[in-house]
Amino acid sequence: MTRDISRRGFLKTAGVVLGGSAGLALGGGLMESAAAAPRQFTISLAAWSLHRMIGKKAGQKDMLEMPRISREEFGIDAIELVNQMMSASETAYLDKLLKNADEHKVKMTLIMIDNAGSVGAESEDGRKSAVEQHKRWIDVASHLGCETLRMNWAGYNDGTMKSSEALNAFIEGSAGPLRQLSEYAEAKKMNLIIENHGGPSSYPDAMVGLIQKVDHPRFGTLPDFGNFPDDVDKYDAIDRMMPYAKAVSAKCYDFDDATGEETKIDYARMMAMVVDEHGYHGNIGIEYEGGRMSEFDGVRACKKLLEKLRA
């Protein structure tokens, strides 16, 4: 993206800061009570956190074991599936997954869809194919009781981000297919969301433009704490994506052994923005993607940090 697009300034309204006698009036027990109030959000586990362990390769565990692992290893009762990690999508397999989830009292809240065509493809046939492929996955998600389906905003090319005209054309071409899918998801009482997952989706200007163009109540964002290029301020980007958020991804890479803090992302700042400023109280999904720690240790460290910030 060119500088004028990626660094375009936005006017923001600042919150009123109480001062003088008004500020003093909020002293004593009232302020202490407000400070002590816990944040309200739930913690889920994205299957991608365990992508080295779970998958379709020889030696990997099947996604059917995800509910048990989430409950027994981490005490987490909500999981987010990834279609490319599932060994099948037929009804018999889905029913086994449902049975396992029910047995371990785990809710499948969301499914992330990759490699299902490009809603922003240049050709009409390409866009139609993407719509049909994603409709099938919406059916799968509905069968599993998921509330939300995450898809990718695919179909861009090297020139998409080089001018406002090219970006606007890509938004225009993508909006129709996404509106069709949003309507299909609405009939299933589901949400359809786009994650900042590379290309235009990782630039808030483009994402906000797309959301406004599609203009459907079931269509929104999945703000991921990572997945931003170097020329994007991740905190500003999350701030601008949150008004449209229907899920949040707590991407994490590594943790300080002494403090338990994430070493690449200021989680306190993120959670203050997500929960306190934007009033988000839904699932925040752990998505560990580090290499130094084991997958289990990374998930546990992220859960511990989220619980600390929630309390």
Which key terms come to mind for this protein?
globular, 311 residues
Task: Please explain how this structure is put together.
The chain is an alpha/beta fold. It is built from eleven helices and eight strands. The protein has helices at 3-6, 20-25, 29-36, 66-74, 91-103, 124-143, 164-187, 204-214, 234-241, 267-277, 295-310; strands at residues 42-46, 78-82, 107-112, 148-151, 191-195, 219-222, 248-252, 283-288. It has an eight-stranded parallel beta sheet. Helix 6 runs parallel beside helix 7 and helix 7 crosses helix 8 (204-214). The model is unreliable at 1-33 (pLDDT under 50).
Strand order of the largest sheet: 6-5-4-3-2-1-8-7
Write the H/E string, N to C: HHHEHEHEHEHEHEHEHEH
Total of DSSP H or I helical runs spanning 4+ residues: 11
Strand content: 5-15%
Distance between the termini: 40 Å
In terms of structural class, how would the helical and strand content be classed?
Answer: alpha/beta
Radius of gyration: 20 Å
* Biggest sheet statistics: 8 strands, parallel
> What is the overall silhouette?
globular
The low-pLDDT segments are 1-33
Summarize the structure.
The chain is 42% helix and 13% strand. The protein has 311 residues and is of the alpha/beta class.
Helices and strands in order, then pairings?
Layout lengths: L2 H4 L13 H6 L3 H8 L5 E5 L19 H9 L3 E5 L8 H13 L3 E6 L11 H20 L4 E4 L12 H24 L3 E5 L8 H11 L4 E4 L11 H8 L6 E5 L14 H11 L5 E6 L6 H16 L1
Helix pairs in contact: 6-7, 7-8
